[in-house]
Design goal:
Helix content is about 70%, strand content about 0%. The protein is mainly alpha-helical.
Amino acid sequence: MRLALSVDLKLGAELVRNINLDFQEQAIRFVLTQANEKGVSQLSKTILLSETHSQFSIPFLSKMLGCKDYFVHLYALHGLGKVGSEDAVNLLIQELNEDKKFSKYAARGLGKTNSDAVIPYLTEALNSNDIYISQNAAYALGEIGSQAAIMALIQSLVHKDEVIRSNVVSALGNLPIFGKNSEAVISHLERILLHDESPFVRRSSLIGLKNIFGHSVVRYLEEALRDEDSLVRSEAAYILGEVASESEISLLIKLAKDEDLSVRAKAVTGLAKIKNPIAIPILINLLNDPYFPVCERAAFALGEFSAEEAISPLAELLKEHNSDLRRSAAYALKKIKHRAARLHLQNCVNDNDPLVRWTAIETLREIKDDSFLFDIKYVLNYCSDEFVRARAVFTLVDNFNGEAVVEILVALLSCEISIVRSSSAKALGETGSEAAKKALLNALKDGLSGNDIGYFMSIIDALQKLDACGLMSNFQQVYWCSEARMRFHMEQQLRTAITTIQNHCKYYNHEIWQEAVQSQEQAHSTRQTTQPSHSEVIARIDRTTQQIDQRTRQMISEPKSNFSGATFNAPVNFGDNPTGAFIGTQNNYPTDPELQCAIADLQTLLTQLQIQHPQVTTEIEAIAITDAKFTEIKQSQTHGLANLRKQLLNPERHLQATKATLGEVAKHYLEESVWAKAILTYLDKLSEDPNLGA
């Protein structure tokens, strides 16, 4: 459980319920301790303890019943219901009787106890004048679902209040029917469907029978469709539409002509689900129904049929004053996917209803033919809705490519509408075009003098997606521009963009990379492709050491520090049978703690570089990254590799340190020849001029 809590508090709380009862109290305390340490709110702690289902959570949950926070109180009741012990039940009963504000939730909590002991209290609550308390009490009895609970519900079917009877019928209709209880429940629901005086209750009975029988409920629908009340008939029509097959379509067509508007509307919905073409003429006629919800549903249904013969009647609906009718007609024309339908929708891009405009542009997005580009350009140039124009930008890029598209997008960078400019910039980032790169770079420079933050951010997002190594210098220029940072607060976004390009192009610093690339190209014809042998690495170390010794003698002849106390030890060799010269060391530094720490820091650094850059396979790449890393270490006042930084900032001391460091590094990293060669190159550079860094 401790492990689970460290991963996720909710997971740990759920595991408490499976712990031996003897240890649950301790587990509850531990959950609360962990929650307190993490600064979890009272609400979250209440939710956590409600997941434990443990009686030892009751003291905390009961305390939360007095909390002024509505949701804390609510979840405390919920948790007590899950506990279900006698103490929890007593608290819930107290809430049911005393706190009117939370009585309905207390009733639901009692239902979760699955205890017959609470049935008398729920039966009493069932008769409450509060509709919500009564409803939840009925639901709770159904949730308990025992024979005693079912009998309590059946006995309440004779209640004089139709709302209470309806709640009881709904609870019975949601029961999992099995065994000897099923026949009694079904019998009562059938009787109520036929004989209850309230259409509200009869409707609930029909829904309950549908829940029980599923598609087999059709046998009850014919009777319900003849009901004198439209509420029952409309519900029967709706259910018929959900469960009916081709054999019942004649019933739905008949209902589509019913005198009651709600019945017609539900019948239309059913016809749309069955999708039999025989219904198309009926649906076209219903486009002229005086009740607009019927027209609306008929239009949606014709869209589901993809009925081309309905295009003209639907186009007439686009002229209606009612925006709901225009929306449904636009949706249907979009679903039909015919050129004639699209031509009607093209005129809707300036409709005064935003959903109609949006449907129009989405239609152009889905229907592509020879005139598609013309339609999109029309929207981009003439639509009055800036959001639709912005959407059209991405529609253009999703469906077309090439210089023609880039030209359109580049022109839109000068649009007077900010969201259109931003969308165009982002879209250009998806094209990969050289012209797009050039246009975005120009826009980047212009963006520094503007005030449109969203547009500037879009340009950065677009540029970092492009495979263009040369963009780094532009980003770095913007990043270090104090005015831009102050105006746009873009530091984090620019840093992210720079990092993205670094990872994509596999270099750290653009200028260093360009120098390295040029050197690599010059040496390409002669560069060895195999890894150097141990003897080659040792020979290079020897040459480097000789250069360092020569420079050291020059410095001693004109000393900046007093080395008179230094002692020289025996040579150090690398391996059992080395080739090449031994390396002599002027060595009172190996016992210097700071230098030893610097050696350790260097080893740590190289390990980090290997882990962070596993893709590096050439010395050129390794040199560039190593060079930049040492620059970072030298420039940072608080870098973690403090001892290595101190050595780098002390050229005289550093030259002495390199001898010992070379020995340690060469022994440890000799097999990693790429990084060994990189560090040797760096030391070559230092030995030429101790004031040089990366």
